[in-house]
Amino acid sequence: MTALAALMKAINALNRIVGNTFMWLSVAIVMVCFWVVVERYLFANTRLWMQDLYPWMNGVMFTAVAGYGLYRNDHVRVDIFFRPASNLRKAWMDLIGVCVFLMPFAYVVWAYSFTFVNRSIGLLEGSANPGGMPGLFVLKSFILVFAALIALQGVAMAIRSILIIAGREDLVPADYRYQYELEKA
Predict the structure, then answer these.
(1) How many of the other CB atoms lie within 10 Å of CB of 41?
(2) What is the reported pTM?
């Protein structure tokens, strides 16, 4: 059980590092978008590669931080069933959700996008816009990063569930335990 707990902590640490790193792209996105607007309306100039850059950074950011969002429990769930449940019931719901929905989804995304991404890398694909950004293949590669990070976080969620079901909640770090406060009327 301690080996499972160590694996869960390592996956959580990886998604925390990736999430805390790539969330800073939001600042860069705003700055690039602002500069594109300033350049267009103040200087009557347009750089097509910059117009490609900020939506691409947006795509990279959101695909890279998806596992972090799952780690932080920022994903959508049906709280009318989940919130009032005991920790044991939450663990069972998470374990079933990971096995039935999350892992098959991650597999489908990986399997169906692998050839697409591989072809893009092989072609060193760039923007379809004349004068646009080179390196579209980098952006497309983040589809695989997305699938891998959410699958890894799914493994961490499953391990947390297994530890709780086995009565070893003490091995789950405090910041990764189920912590919901019921709303007071």
Answers:
(1) 9
(2) 0.84
Cα–Cα distances (Å) from 138 to 4, 56, 96, 124, 149, in that order, read 33, 9, 34, 9, 16
Q: Are 176 and 8 in contact (CB under 8 A)?
A: yes
| Maximal C-alpha separation, the chain | 65
What is the per-residue pLDDT across 71-98, written as a single tens digit (0 to 9) for each? 988 877 777 777 788 889 989 999 999 9
Exposure string of 140-155, with b = 16+ CB inside 10 Å and e = fewer, is bbbbbbbbebbbbbbb
C-alpha 103/C-alpha 107 separation (Å) is 6
136-to-23, 140, 146, 149 alpha-carbon distances in Å? 20, 6, 16, 20
Rounded Cα distance between 35 and 18, Å, is 26
17 compared with 184, residue with greater pLDDT = 17
pLDDT of residue 172: 85
pLDDT digits (tens, 9 = 90+) for 104-116: 999 999 999 999 9
The tokens of 12 are what?
A: 């959580």
